[in-house]
């Protein structure tokens, strides 16, 4: 019977920033829309309805809200 040597793993190692971002963020763009958000917000402030393919955002960022309010109040 042949025994295999155990491979020693380091306690820590540098994370690949690109891979880590894919695990912690959602991002997408197309049709004039670009969006990205932390994955932890899904189900808390951002809700996806797969039946209607709709994202709902609860609590827009202040700078976005200001732009929307200016546009809808007639001040382009």
TrEMBL record:
Keyword hit for Cytoplasm: yes
Keyword vocabulary terms for this entry: Cytoplasm
Locations listed in the record: Cytoplasm, Nucleoid
One of the record's GO cellular component terms: bacterial nucleoid
Principal cellular location given in the protein's record: cytoplasm
Domain of life: Bacteria
GO molecular function, one term: double-stranded DNA binding
InterPro entries for the chain: Nucleoid_associated_NdpA
The name this protein goes by in its record: Nucleoid-associated protein
Organism of derivation: Escherichia coli
Lineage: Bacteria, Pseudomonadati, Pseudomonadota, Gammaproteobacteria, Enterobacterales
Gene name of the encoded protein: ndpA_2
């Amino acid at each position: 019977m042949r025994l295999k040597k155990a491979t020693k793993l380091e306690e820590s190692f540098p994370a690949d920033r690109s891979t880590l971002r894919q695990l912690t963020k959602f991002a997408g763009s197309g049709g004039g829309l670009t969006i990205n958000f932390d994955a932890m917000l899904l189900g808390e402030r951002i809700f996806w309805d797969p039946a209607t393919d709709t994202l709902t955002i609860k609590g827009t960022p202040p700078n976005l809200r200001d732009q929307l309010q200016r546009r809808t109040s007639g001040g382009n």
